[in-house]
From TrEMBL:
PANTHER family per record: TRANSMEMBRANE PROTEIN 53
Cellular localization per UniProt: Endomembrane system; Nucleus membrane
Keywords: Membrane, Nucleus, Transmembrane, Transmembrane helix
Protein name, UniProt field: Uncharacterized protein
Membrane topology of the entry: Single-pass membrane protein
CC per GO annotation: nuclear membrane
Pfam families associated with the record: DUF829
InterPro entries in the record: DUF829_TMEM53 (IPR008547)
The keyword Transmembrane helix is annotated on this UniProt entry: yes
Amino acid sequence: MSSRPNALEPLQPIGDNLYLYESSDSTSDESQGPSLIVLFTWLGGATASRIQKYLLSYRAIWPAATILLVTTRVFEFAAATSGATHARLKPARDAIRRHVTSRVKGRPSTLFHIFSNGGLHTAIHLILSLRDTKDRAESLDLRPYLKGIIIDCCPGQTDYMRTYQGAIVSLPSTLLGQLLGKPLLFLAVTLSSSLTHAGLVAGVKDYRRQLNDSNVFGSLARRFYLYAKEDVVVGYKDVELHIKEAKEKGYEVDNVCFLNSNHCSLPRGNEEMYWDTIRNFWKKLVLKREDQIRCKL
């Protein structure tokens, strides 16, 4: 994706492939929408122009929200150590801590929007690194503030060729970009597969398990799976199996399967439906929480 400072306005770069728009509204409550939206991008084709469409829609629906964009990088997903990934994410952690402590009225309400296995990988690293006890002064458990998780086109299964197909979309369309990029991507995916099978780095199988682990994302957040039946990168049956497992673990789950859609392109041709489902997901989440509060009174 482009690194131009204005490519993702009004978000501004705060680190290496990290962008932030900080709302001046510190008093809105969750009935008006999430106070913080964190987007974790996918590996293939996550260009600034495509990401900007999501940003514009979120700002139109919930203009008072702070928006944090965390991109996913191919080689980080394939072979980077946890330490290297956590170091890159430090500005994102600082932004989240600042948001949580700056709320004047009510508790922060956070919405994660996770795209594909790549975004899931990055989201797991971010939420776990926030609680890193190596620096207790900065440790933050985000789980009480995480109200909803949109799980967009994931999680898949450990599939070498599907991972390669997902990553290859990110290559430049020029002949030179294809000629140079495909062998490098092939090596990266091969390395990732080898390291995963050797148990040296986490893989998609681990991410699937961690997504349903209350020690990672907590048990309070409502989950919303959005996926495509024709997705060639993440199979819909893999997603539906994870939905079944999440329900069996007692999580509150909603899901929508889109027809005639591609991987991480669900709004294309379905824009009104896509954003209506997201808006209604949050409304449903708020109403359920209000009912729970009334029952305790």
